[in-house]
Amino acid sequence: MVQKMKLAYIGGGSTAWAWKLMSDLACDETISGEVLLYDIDMEAAKRNEKIGNLSGKGRFVYKAVPTLPEALKGADFVIISILPGGLDCMESDVHYPEKYGIYQSVGDTTGPGGIVRAIRTIPMYVEFAQAIEKYAPNAWVINYTNPMSMCTDTLYRVFPKIKAFGCCHEVFGTQRLLASMLKEVKGLENVQRNEIKVNVKGINHFTWIDSAFYKDIDLLPLYEQFAVKHYEGIDNNDFDEDDSCRMYSFKHRIKFDLFLRYHKIAAAGDRHLAEFCPGQWYLDNPDVVKQWGFGLTTVPARREEYQERYENAMAVINGTREFHPEESGEEGVHQMKALMGMGDLVTNVNLPNQGQVSDLPLGRIVETNAHFTSGKITPVIAGELGGVPHAMTIRVSDNFDQVVTSCLKDDLSGCLSAFQNDQLVTRISHGQAEEMFMAMLKNTEAYLGSYKKIW
Amino acid sequence: MVQKMKLAYIGGGSTAWAWKLMSDLACDETISGEVLLYDIDMEAAKRNEKIGNLSGKGRFVYKAVPTLPEALKGADFVIISILPGGLDCMESDVHYPEKYGIYQSVGDTTGPGGIVRAIRTIPMYVEFAQAIEKYAPNAWVINYTNPMSMCTDTLYRVFPKIKAFGCCHEVFGTQRLLASMLKEVKGLENVQRNEIKVNVKGINHFTWIDSAFYKDIDLLPLYEQFAVKHYEGIDNNDFDEDDSCRMYSFKHRIKFDLFLRYHKIAAAGDRHLAEFCPGQWYLDNPDVVKQWGFGLTTVPARREEYQERYENAMAVINGTREFHPEESGEEGVHQMKALMGMGDLVTNVNLPNQGQVSDLPLGRIVETNAHFTSGKITPVIAGELGGVPHAMTIRVSDNFDQVVTSCLKDDLSGCLSAFQNDQLVTRISHGQAEEMFMAMLKNTEAYLGSYKKIW
Amino acid sequence: MVQKMKLAYIGGGSTAWAWKLMSDLACDETISGEVLLYDIDMEAAKRNEKIGNLSGKGRFVYKAVPTLPEALKGADFVIISILPGGLDCMESDVHYPEKYGIYQSVGDTTGPGGIVRAIRTIPMYVEFAQAIEKYAPNAWVINYTNPMSMCTDTLYRVFPKIKAFGCCHEVFGTQRLLASMLKEVKGLENVQRNEIKVNVKGINHFTWIDSAFYKDIDLLPLYEQFAVKHYEGIDNNDFDEDDSCRMYSFKHRIKFDLFLRYHKIAAAGDRHLAEFCPGQWYLDNPDVVKQWGFGLTTVPARREEYQERYENAMAVINGTREFHPEESGEEGVHQMKALMGMGDLVTNVNLPNQGQVSDLPLGRIVETNAHFTSGKITPVIAGELGGVPHAMTIRVSDNFDQVVTSCLKDDLSGCLSAFQNDQLVTRISHGQAEEMFMAMLKNTEAYLGSYKKIW
Amino acid sequence: MVQKMKLAYIGGGSTAWAWKLMSDLACDETISGEVLLYDIDMEAAKRNEKIGNLSGKGRFVYKAVPTLPEALKGADFVIISILPGGLDCMESDVHYPEKYGIYQSVGDTTGPGGIVRAIRTIPMYVEFAQAIEKYAPNAWVINYTNPMSMCTDTLYRVFPKIKAFGCCHEVFGTQRLLASMLKEVKGLENVQRNEIKVNVKGINHFTWIDSAFYKDIDLLPLYEQFAVKHYEGIDNNDFDEDDSCRMYSFKHRIKFDLFLRYHKIAAAGDRHLAEFCPGQWYLDNPDVVKQWGFGLTTVPARREEYQERYENAMAVINGTREFHPEESGEEGVHQMKALMGMGDLVTNVNLPNQGQVSDLPLGRIVETNAHFTSGKITPVIAGELGGVPHAMTIRVSDNFDQVVTSCLKDDLSGCLSAFQNDQLVTRISHGQAEEMFMAMLKNTEAYLGSYKKIW
Ligand SMILES: [Mg+2]
Ligand SMILES: [Mg+2]
Ligand SMILES: [Mg+2]
Ligand SMILES: [Mg+2]
C-alpha cells in the first residue's frame, strides 16, 4: 500500500533543499501524493514544478501555485525553506561587519548577520504562521530556514498550537566524524552515521553531545584521544554541507579545541561553532581563522554556487541533463513517514523547550533528540548543558529571545540591545555597534517595510 | 555474531518472571552468556538453574549462587524480582484490612497492603543497592518487584548513580485492548500491541494515555465511542496477566468509566486502577466490585497457582514435562539488547522524574516512555497529567515518598501518617487505621527486624 | 498631612466586613476620602451609607451607588466582600449534603458546599474582573469573599494584570493562640498577636506554620509540649471569629492533633481545618465533631446572627444606638496605608503562586506572608509544605483549579469530577455524588443563569 | 531591657568594616555583649580590641583571640570581613591584566582580578565553614568579604545548613541617588535612603531595580527624565563608598546609560557595574573610563588609604585622637537586632536562590530584598531579570559557579575555562588568557598552597 500525502512547500523555488526533497520523494516507493510549490519567485517555483514532475515515476505531482492559501489548503505537511532577502541582503549581513573588524564564517544564525537576517525574516514568518493557522492548522510544519531558532520561535509565538519543528543536518556531520574515528581507531568499516547514538542538546548550530555510543562501544573516551591526536586538524573531511565546495570545509580543530576545554563534543560544523564563541577566539581576523583550519564562506562564492545550480536546473528542464534522484541523507521524508505511522525514528530536532534541556528556559527553541512516531513528536530528556557551554549558549538564546520579542513589538531599539550584546559584536563599543546596526538595516531596508524606520 | 552478556538475577528462584526471562533468552539467537541466580530460597534457585540449563540450546549457562556478591560481580545486567515476605505476609497485606471493610484487588502497590509490603521490602532494597554499588556499579538494573515505585525509589536514594529502571507490562494490556478495538471497529486483524503508539504518563499501575495512534489513525475518538458502547464491560478479555486464570480477569469497565470522566485512557488492569481511586468508588464492598466487573485476587488462589507452578517446575526437572520456550511478550530481553546497541526501542518504563511528567515533583519514580539505545535510556517528555488524574496521582506519589523517607529514617510513625492518608484507608478513622497498621506490622514482623519495634 | 484615598466597596451592604472597615477608617486619623458602596441590595448599601456617615468625624464620605462602574471609576482601592446567593443558598450548601451523611462545619471554602458556592460565585467574579479592568485597572483589589482561593483565581484569570489579593484573619487566631501559650507557659502578659512572627504557607483556611518566634523565643518546641498538655482541648477560647457566639467556637483539638501528626502548626480555626481533611477524620458524624471539640455552624444560627446585626444597624440609623468605632483587628486599613507609603507591613495574604510555596504549582492562589510597601506587594519565599500536609493541600488545590477552569468554560460536568474527588465527598459513590450535586445545583439555580442547565 | 549577644569577628583586625561595626554597636543603647576578634594578623586584632573597649560605654567587651574555635564557641553571630591575601595580591589582581589591555575599576568581584581573588579565598572559606559547622552551627553568619557571591556560595556548599547571608551597601547608594533626585525634581528635603522602597534583584554589585517608590510617588518615570537630563553625569556625588576619597567617585553616567538601554535601574556604583559588562563598553582603556566619568581604583591609592587608617588607629590607641562613634549607615546591627526579635527589617541581602530571582538557577547566590524577623530571614519574590540584563548576569553567575565548583575539586583548569569566558577577558585570545592566568597565579602563589600547582 502506498501512503498518500499532500505537501505545501514555502520557498518552493529553492534550488537546495527543494531538490533534496524531490530526490528523496522520488526514491521512496512507499509514498505518493502532491507537492504544492509556493515562492515569491514564481518562475523559480515553476522551474521546480517541471523538475519535480520529471523526477521519480509520477508518484508525486508537483504544482507551482501563486498564493500561500492555495499551497496550504489541505496540506498534511508544510515545508518552509526560504532565503530571506536573497544574496544581496546576505552580502550586507556577512561582509558589512568586516568594516568593523568583525568576521563571520556563515552569518545566517547569530552574530550581526544572523540578527539582521532575523529582523527581516520574522515578519515573513508571522505571515506564514497566520496563514497556517487559517488554512492548515493541523499540518506538520518543517522549518529549514535560518536563523532556525528565531524562525521556529516566531511560528510558535504567533500560532502557539502549531505542530512545527526545525531540522538541520549539522549533528549528522558530527556523527560521520565519529564513524570515521571508528574506522581509524577500531578498523570498523561502513558504520552508518545513524548507528552512532548520541545524546545531543543545545540550540541549533551550537549543540553538545555528552553520550555517544556505537553498539556497546562508548565513544567519548575514544574521542578524547582522537581530539588530542588530531588537534592540528583533519584534512580529509568526510562532511560537506550541501555536497559542495571547499568554501564549506573545515578541519574539526575548533571541535577538538572545545572538547578539550569542556569535555563535551560540540556537534556542528566548525564554521557554525566559531560564531557562537567570543569573536576573539576563532574569528579574530582572517589569519586566526586560517590557523583554526576553517574558511569564511563568502557571498560571492555563494553567488557562483547559486549560478551553477540555476544552470543545472535549466539543463534538466531543457533535457540536456538528466535528474538522477539519489537519497540526500536528509531526514525530512523519514520524519514525515514516521508521523504517518510508517516507522518510528529518534533524531535531533528543534522544538520549544518543555524541559528537554533542563538549564535553558522553558519555551526557548532548543535542539535535542525527539521520538517521531504515529501522530506525535516527543522530545527526550537530554539533561543539562552545564558549565561554560551553558554560559555561552544561554547568552545567545537570551539574545535570540530579545530579538524575536522586539521584532514582534516593532521595537528595533530592543533588537539593537541584543545586537550590542552579541558575542561577535562586543568587541566594538556601543556607539560603533549602533552605527553598524543602522547601516545594515539601511542596506536591507527593502525587506523592512513592516517596521517603523529607525535607521 | 552473538553478543555475550552476564546477568545477575536477584530472586532467581522465582517461578513467574524468571521463567519468562529464561524463555525469552532461549528464543533469541543473537545473544549468549551466563545467568547467576541468587535467592534466599537456594533450593528454588537450584530448580531454576536446572530448568534454565534445560531450556534453549546452551547459549546461556545458568548457575545458582549462595550469596549476592557472587551473583553481582561482573554483571552487565541485574534483574530483581522477589516476593518480599512470601504469601503468608501477602495474606495479611491483602486480607487483614477486610476486617475494617477495606477490600483490595491486588494489594501489592498502594493501599494498606502496598504500604506494609513496602515497609518490609525497603530494607531488602537498601541491601541490594549497597551491594550493587559495591559489586556492579555500572550494571543496568531492572526491577520487576512491587511496590514498583517505592522499590525503585529506594535503589536511587541509596545509590544515586545506579542505572536502574522498573518494568511492568500493564500498559501492554491497554495496547492490546486498543488493538482489539481496531479489529472490532475497523476490521483490522493482527495489529500488534507495539504498533499501537501511545504517550503514557503517571506512576506504575496508574498511568494515563493522552495520545494513541495506529499508523495514521487517531485512536482517542474511536476509544470514546468504544467506551460508551462497552460501558457495561467486555467479557472476552484479550489480556490476562501471567497468562492465567479468572482471578486476574476484568471487563475494562473501570477503564471505560475513568475515560468517560477524565478523557484520558487509564492504562493498567482494572484491578490495579481501582486501588488508586477513593475506596468507595470501585472497591466499596464485594458487591460493588462484582458490579464493576473485576475480581479480588485472593491469596488462597495465589497459593494454588504457586503450587501448580511448583509442580510444573518439578515435572520439567524430572523430565516428565518438556519446557517449550516461547516469547513471553515481556520486553526485558529487548531492552537489554537495545542497551547493548542491538536495536533501539521506545517503551514505557519507571524512572526518577527529570521532567518527563511535568506536574509531578522531580525525583519521584514515574512511568513514561523512554528511548533505549546504545548505552543509554532517555525518558521522553510525556507532559502533564492535569486535572483530577493529577490530584489522584500526586496524592499517592506523596504517600509513597513519605513511606520511603520514613523507612530510611526508621520512622514507622511517619509511615503511619501516610497509611492513614491512603485513598483506601481514609474510610476509617485515624484511630482505627492506627490499630490496623499495628496489627499488620505484627502479622509480618518476621521481616521487620531492622526497624525499632512500634507495634 | 492626611492622605486622601478613594475606595469602592463591592458588597457594600454587608453588615460584617463593611462595619469593620467603617470602624477602622473612623479610627485612623491619618487618612480621609470617599467610600462608594455598591450592592445588589441597594437598600442595604444605603443603610451602610448612613451608618458610615455617622461614624468617624467626617474624614470619610460614604455614598451608595446603583451601578458597578459608578463605584469603580477613579478608585484607588476596591474591596469585595459579598455573600453569594444569600443564606438560602448557603442552607443548601451546608445542610443538603447531610442527607448523604456529609457534615460540614463551615461549608463555604471546600467540601460540597464550597464547590457549589464557587460555581455560583465565579460568574459574579468574572463580571467584577471585567469591570475593574475597564474602570479601575490600576486599583488595588482586596477580596474577602469565600471561597477565597477560587474567587481570587477568577479575578486573575479574567484580568491577569489585576492588582488583587485576598485577606483572611484565620492565621491571626493562631497567633493569638501562641500568645496565650506564652502567657501560660512563660507568664508573658500582653504579647500582641502581630509580635508572634510566623512563616506561613498553604491555601486559605489550610495554612501551615513551620517557624514561629516571639522575640528570641522559638515557639515550636513550646507548642509541642503545649499540644500534648492540652490535647483534650482548650475551653476558654481566646479567638472568636467575628467576635461572636459559641457556634464558631472550638477547642484547638484538631490543631493539636494535626501538629502531633505532622510537626507543623495548622494555622486556621478547627472548623476550617476539619473540612480539608478526609471526612472520616473529624467530620464523620455529629458525635465525632463533638468529640473533637468544635461545632457545626448552622445556617439557622447564621440567620439569627444576621437578624441581630440588621436590628443593630436600624438602631444606629434611627439614633437609638450609637456607633462606637473600635479597631477591628483586621488589617485592611494597614495594608492600604502600606501601599500608599504610610508604613511597611509583612502579613499573610492570598496571591498567585510565583514560587512562594515551592511545592504547589505556579499560578495557584496560595497564602503566605508578603511584604506590603509603597506601591508594591511582594510575597516572601515560604518554602515547601512537604509530606502529608502537601498531599492534602494539593488535592484540594487541584480540585479548586478544576472547578474554576470548568466554570469559565461552562463545563459543569468538569466541576462534577472535582466534586466527586472532594475529600468530604469521596465517602459516597460516584453515582450518589452526582445525584447530590444535581440536587444542590437545582436548589441554587436562581444564581446559575449563566450556565448551560445540566441539573 | 538590654539584649545580650555574642559576636565572633573573623578578620577582626580590619580597619574598615570592623570600625563601622564598633561604631554602630557603641551607638545602640539597647544591646550589649561580647565581641571576639580573630585575625591572622593578631596585632591588628589587638589594636581593634583596644579601640573597641575605648568606644561606647562598656556595653560591649572586645577581646582578640588567637584561634578560630575560641572566637566561634557560643557565638550568636559570626561576621566575616577579610582582605584575602592583602594588598600585594590585590596589586596583581587589579594591575597585572593591564599588560593585556584589560582595565579593572575595582578588581575584587568579577573580571580576572575577581576570579583569582576567589581562587585564593575559597580555601579560607572552606575552613571557616567547617569551623562554624563544628563550633557555632546555629549562629547567624554575615559575610562582607568580596567576591561576595563566591565566598557566600562556598559557605553553603561546605555546610549546607549554615545560616549565612552576605551584605553590601551598594544598593544604598542608588537609594541615595533617588533621594537626591527627589530633592532636585520635587524639592523634597531630608528623604532618608530607606524610605526609598525598591524591588531589587541580581547578583552582588550587579543588581537591578524595577520598582521604586517614595510614599505614593512612582520613581521610575522620574528617573527616566533624570537620566536623560543628567546623561553627561552628576558631579557632586552624594554617595561615597567608605566615606572616602575621589578614587571611589563616579558620576552615575554608566547607571544612566544602562537605564536608557534596559529600562531598569542598575543598582551599584558605576565602578562595579562597568566590570560586569563587556570590557569594551566602559573599560576599554583609561580614556574611555574617563569619558564615562568614573575612576580606576588603584592599589597604590588603597595603600595610602590603609596607612591613614592605621595611623588613625594608633592615634586612638595612644590617646592622641578620640574615637567618636557615629552611625555608619550600614545595616549589620539592625539585621542582628531584627533576628533577635527587636524590630523587623526588609533590606537587600545575598542568599542562595530559592526562587527569589525566577530566571537564575536555584542555589546560586543572588541579591534581593529579604524579610528579617525573629529567628528568620525570608527572601522576597523579586521576579525575573529578563532581557539583556539577564543575559549579562547569568553569564557571570555561571562563571562564578564554575570557579567555586572547580576550586572545591582542586581543578584550576576548570577555573581557567571560566576565566577565559569572563566578560573582561574575552577581548584576548584563549592562549593569551591562559598565559595571564598562570602569571597571576604565580604572583599570588603564597596563598595557593592547598591547590595542585599548575602555574
Ligand atoms: Mg543548519
Ligand atoms: Mg506491574
Ligand atoms: Mg477566611
Ligand atoms: Mg560590596
Overview of this structure, please?
4 copies of one chain form a homotetramer. Chain A is an alpha/beta fold. Chain A has 2 domains: 3-99 and 108-168, LDH C-terminal domain-like; 100-107 and 169-455, LDH C-terminal domain-like (Alpha-Beta Complex), CATH 3.90.1820. In chain A, 44% of the residues lie in helices and 16% in strands. Chain A contains 17 helices and 13 strands. In chain A, strands 7, 8, 9, 10, 11, 12 and 13 form a 7-stranded antiparallel beta sheet that branches. In chain A, strand 2, helix 2 and strand 3 form a beta-alpha-beta unit. In chain A, helix 6 crosses helix 15 and helix 15 (387-408) packs antiparallel against helix 16. The B-C interface holds B 257, 261-262, 278, 280-281, 284, 288, 359, 361, 387-388, 390-392, 394-395, 398-399, 402, 414, 417-418, 421, 423, 426-430 and C 257, 261-262, 278-281, 284, 288, 359, 361, 387-388, 390-392, 394-395, 398-399, 402, 414, 417-418, 420-421, 423, 426-430. The structure holds magnesium ion (4 copies). The site of one magnesium ion has 3 residues of chain C, from loops. Chains A, B, C, D: Belongs to the glycosyl hydrolase 4 family.
CATH topology call of the largest domain in chain A: LDH C-terminal domain-like
Please report which band the strand proportion of chain A falls in: under 5%, 5-15%, 15-25%, 25-35%, 35-45% or over 45%. 15-25%
Instruction: Count the DSSP helices of chain A.
Output: 17
N-to-C order of helices and strands of chain A: EHEHEHEHHEHEHEEEHHEHHHHHEEEHHH
User: Which CATH C-level class of the largest domain in chain A is it?
Assistant: Alpha Beta
Kindly state the number of beta strands of chain A: 13
Name the shape of chain A in a single word.
Answer: globular
Quote the average pLDDT of chain A. Answer: 95
Largest interface: A-B, 32 and 32 residues
| Gyration radius of chain A, rounded | 21 Å
Low-confidence segments of chain A, ≥5 residues, pLDDT <50?
238-245
* Small-molecule components bound: magnesium ion
Q: What is the CATH architecture term of the largest domain in chain A?
A: Alpha-Beta Complex
Q: Mind summarizing the main beta sheet of chain A?
A: 7 strands, antiparallel
Report how far apart the termini of chain A are. Answer: 58 Å
CATH superfamily heading of the largest domain in chain A: AglA-like glucosidase
Total number of distinct structural domains of chain A: 2
Fraction of residues in H or I helices of chain A: 40-55%
Structural class of chain A: alpha/beta
Cofactor (chains A, B, C, D): NAD(+); Mn(2+)
Subunit structure (chains A, B, C, D): Homotetramer.
Family (chains A, B, C, D): Belongs to the glycosyl hydrolase 4 family.
GO molecular function (chains A, B, C, D): hydrolase activity, hydrolyzing O-glycosyl compounds; metal ion binding; oxidoreductase activity, acting on the CH-OH group of donors, NAD or NADP as acceptor
